[in-house]
Design brief:
This protein has about 900 residues and is of the alpha+beta class. It is about 35% helix and about 25% strand.
């Protein structure tokens, strides 16, 4: 599941280096037995602080720089001491050290402090100040503010005591002789009490935040934010449903590593807690788990999604047995982007999607051999480092960088048969497309997988997921606020989901709404950024819970556009807003409604022009697939309608974005949709190596073209069910492939069922490119019968054939008879009139009527100058004989 690569090895990167340097001081054998290298702390810049004991009986502290991969000696004690905590300021001028006093048995009655905390000047080595000499252990941590100044003459140090309080020391510095940095307030340092009482605390060095738990009526999680100007304030409080006393002793997370706890009995904590924040996502997750005992058959853990206003408790049935000798066993929480990985070695790996938490099927659950990450065994101590992408195996002294393996996910996706659950495939698709995207190589392999599994699964449509997940990734990067209002999946939580998609075997989940977090009133938007977005997200949770359907559903377009009712070649219908009821005459109402419909059509056309201009700008040189090269009125209307409805939706739910920004987001959203469909077709085009001759109608299709035709039909089915527009020219291209690949009768069945649409471009090419062989004549005549009358009148002139002439004649007769619609009474046949032929009385009556109308007109053939009554008579008679089955010579 993860790519795990070693980034730091204590033995390789530190010990071997020390060995080379100190081997010149003493004998190698004596040195190798004396060294005890231990990792003490990891600072914000990634520097590793460590201590070791040399051959001369002293203790030294050094730093490993991951950038230069060099080791630097910071300080040397003249005797062996026990360093329990250590921190170095950003400028590397001050070193804070907390020492544990280890007294002999005969000295225990003497009044000796248990812990001694020192502040040491190290550039150059100069003064040492005692900050604390107390009976409780002290953790030390320098602040690492973001600053552009090359030289900062002040440092700020946190002291965290086992007695449950936190103090901040303000150290003023000065430069002497151009290079000596010394403390100005050496005798009397200013300090503040930051926290009065806590039982658990976690330091987030990357964001300079201190989280701690305190108890009032119930457990409360509090966050103190330290700013670049060295001010700090309590910005956040959240009540948690924890036991009254979950900790037997104080717990310090990400505050260094104390190796001198052997004298204290190890206590098992019933609860393990971790807090993960993501600046990019503006998210916060509080994770805690119950301790697992050998008698238990399940593991429980809770993820509080602060930015989503809910918490999820998972219970996982354990397949393997827990060793009876195992103590203090908890699942490990690992943050990777917006995923929270819950890992219990040898049992399961659960990748929880903190963005799309509504449905369980968007989180990936693995068990058995697939869940093995190759991380240290259960007995090793593993810490999650502040950068949220690394692990530290403290026992082995090794650090690892973590990243999700795309090859592993693709292998999961491509596993055939029922051995892979649909919910796993859905979670893998979203991880590949959203988390690891954009990646053209991955997208191409996913498209290949879709082509190999072209039919939709029982629970979800993979083409719809590809389109919506890709769109979600593109737009989410534009604004985090779009998370709740735009679709990210075709799987809806409003309907009953199939059991194979909504359930994971062996895993149960319960969702609860947690108490609303309390943000500092003093904060109140004064510091824009993470806290502003988190506060806005938590406040919007209640709004989105109250709104019936905050997420945009593309099926809403069906209310405005009669998409399902469009037959072959029919023109789309824009539904204009209904006119208000009034006492005006019907004619004025009709004119008003016509004007309103015309205005709506113009507005929709403007939307379409904006979208297509963006597509043309982004894809000007891409002409592999012949799309966007014709006027497709049907798709143009749907494009404009989608822009209109989506703009209205965002203006209603996210007014703070502003109308100008919303308009830009909407236009780009629909443009990206069309580009995605084009991208899918281009990938399929390259995969099957289709040549330009695919657009020739007079050649049969190849097996590769049949496969592409099938893929295009599936794309059309997926977009049609979601009411998504296709690029103009899509239906023409699909119809051309249909003529080449399908038998003629099956092609007409596809047309009759609405699977293929007869565009004007396709019909015109059909009439001109195909010859007048018997089969082609039948096809052309069948097409003319299926297209609407306005298109038929335009297409008939392109085909030089009696059938097209018959169509022209019918149109001519219809236009003449309409002029006689208001004539009352009936005209009788004049049998004595010269030229009367009683052979076919209906035809004779039609001829007489046309002749009379022609006599009344000054220029009866102004529009159709090749038509006369004799031609109409002969054409109608010939067509009648054909229909009756008589041979016509």
């Amino acid at each position: 599941m993860l790519n795990v690569s070693a980034t730091f090895d204590l033995q390789k990167d530190v010990v071997s280096n020390i060995f080379k340097k100190e081997s010149s001081v003493g004998r190698i054998e004596e040195y190798s037995n004396a060294v005890e290298t231990q990792i003490i702390n990891i600072e914000r810049d990634g520097g590793v602080l460590y201590s070791w004991k040399g051959v001369t009986g002293n203790t030294q502290i050094g730093k490993y720089d991951p950038t230069t991969k060099q080791n630097k000696l910071l300080y040397t004690f003249d005797k062996q001491v026990c360093v329990s905590s250590c921190s170095l300021n950003k400028e590397e001028t001050l070193l804070a050290v907390s020492l544990v006093q280890r007294t002999r048995a005969e000295e225990r009655l003497k009044p000796v402090s248990k812990c001694l905390t020192l502040l040491i000047e190290i550039q150059p080595l100069n003064n040492t100040k005692v900050l604390k000499a107390v009976d409780c252990k002290i953790r030390v941590q320098f602040l690492y503010p973001e600053t552009d100044r090359s030289s900062v003459l002040e440092s700020h140090l946190l002291l965290l005591a086992d007695e449950g309080y936190v103090e901040q020391y303000h150290v003023m510095l000065s430069k002497q002789e151009g290079y000596r940095v010394v403390m100005c307030n050496f005798k009397r340092m200013a300090k503040d009490r930051v926290v009065e009482d806590f039982t658990w605390t976690q330091w987030d060095s990357h964001t300079q935040r201190l989280f701690y738990l305190t108890y009032r009526d119930k457990a409360v999680l509090v966050c103190v934010q330290f700013y670049p100007n060295h001010n700090c304030e309590t910005v956040f409080e959240l009540a948690l449903d924890l036991p009254s006393n979950p900790f037997t002793s104080l717990r310090f997370i990400n505050l260094g590593f104390d190796h001198y706890q052997e004298e204290e009995p190890v206590q098992d904590d019933p609860i393990r807690i971790a807090v993960f924040t993501n600046i990019i996502e503006s998210s916060m997750c509080v994770c805690y788990s119950q301790q697992i005992t050998p008698q238990q058959a399940s593991c429980s853990y809770t993820i509080v999604l602060v930015h989503k206003g809910c918490s999820k408790t998972f219970t996982v049935a354990l397949d393997g047995d827990i060793s009876p000798h195992t103590t203090d066993l908890h699942p490990l929480f690992l943050p990777l982007g917006y995923y929270i990985l819950v890992y219990l070695p040898g049992h399961f790996l659960h990748c929880i999607n903190s963005r799309q938490q509504e449905l369980l099927c968007h989180s990936l659950f693995l068990s058995g051999p697939e869940s093995d990450l190759g991380l240290p065994a259960e007995g090793a101590v593993v810490f999650c480092l502040p950068d949220c992408t690394s692990l530290l195996d403290l026992a082995a002294g090794r650090m690892f960088s973590l990243d999700i393996s795309s090859d592993f996910l693709l292998q999961l996706l491509q596993t055939p048969g029922p051995s892979r659950h649909d919910n796993q495939r859905l979670a893998v698709m979203h991880c590949l497309l959203v988390y690891l995207g954009p990646n053209p190589h991955l997208e191409q392999r996913i498209i290949d997988w879709i082509c190999d599994n072209i039919m939709p699964f029982d629970t979800f449509d993979q083409i719809q997921e590809f389109v919506l997940a890709s769109l979600y990734r593109i737009v989410y990067n534009k604004s985090l606020s779009l998370d709740k209002v735009l679709p990210y999946t075709s799987v809806s939580g409003d309907k009953d989901l199939p059991a194979s998609l909504d359930e994971v075997p062996g895993v149960t989940c319960s969702t609860q709404l947690h108490a609303e977090p309390v943000f500092s009133k003093k904060h109140s938007w004064s510091q824009p950024g993470y806290w502003e977005d988190l506060q806005w997200s938590s406040e919007r949770v209640q709004y989105f819970e109250a709104v019936p359907s905050p997420r945009f559903r593309t099926q809403q377009l069906q209310q405005e556009w009669t998409f399902p009712n469009l037959g072959p070649g029919r023109e789309p219908v824009c539904q204009a807003p209904e006119a208000s009821v009034s006492t005006q005459p019907s004619q004025k109402k009709s004119e008003k409604k016509r004007a309103s419909g015309s205005h709506a059509a113009c507005h929709i056309e403007e939307n379409t022009k904006k979208v297509l201009s963006v597509v043309d700008t982004c894809c000007r040189d891409q002409k592999l697939v012949p799309l966007f090269q014709e006027e497709d009125q049907q798709q143009r209307v749907l494009i404009g309608q989608m822009v209109d409805k989506l703009r209205e939706h965002l203006n209603r739910h996210l007014p703070r974005l502003g109308k100008k920004r919303i308009d830009s987001l909407v236009v780009n959203y629909v443009a990206k949709l069309l580009e995605l469909i084009r991208y899918m077709l281009e990938s399929v085009w390259l995969k099957y190596r289709l040549a330009p001759c695919v657009m020739c109608l007079n050649k049969p299709g190849s097996p590769a073209e049949w496969t592409v035709f099938h893929v295009m039909c599936r794309i059309l089915e997926a977009t049609k069910s979601l009411c998504l527009p296709n690029p103009p020219g899509y239906h023409t291209l699909l119809a051309v492939l249909g003529v080449r690949c399908l038998p003629r009768h099956m092609f007409l069945q596809y047309v009759d069922q609405g699977l293929l649409q007869l565009t004007e471009t396709f019909v015109s090419r059909l009439m001109t490119d195909l010859d007048n062989s018997h089969s082609n004549e039948q096809l052309k005549f069948s097409i003319l019968k299926r297209i609407p009358e306005p298109m038929e009148q335009r297409m008939c002139h392109l085909w030089d054939h009696p059938i097209s002439s018959a169509c022209i004649s019918r149109a001519y007769v219809s236009s003449l008879l309409k002029k006689q619609a208001n004539t009352k009474g009936s005209q009788f046949i004049d049998r004595g009139r010269p030229g009367f032929r009683p052979d076919f009385l209906p035809l004779t009556y039609l001829t007489k009527t046309l002749s009379d109308l022609e006599d009344e007109a000054l220029n009866p053939f102004e529009e159709q100058e090749t038509v006369d009554a004799r031609f109409v008579e002969e054409t109608a008679l010939k067509q009648t004989l054909i229909l009756l089955g008589f041979e016509v010579k």
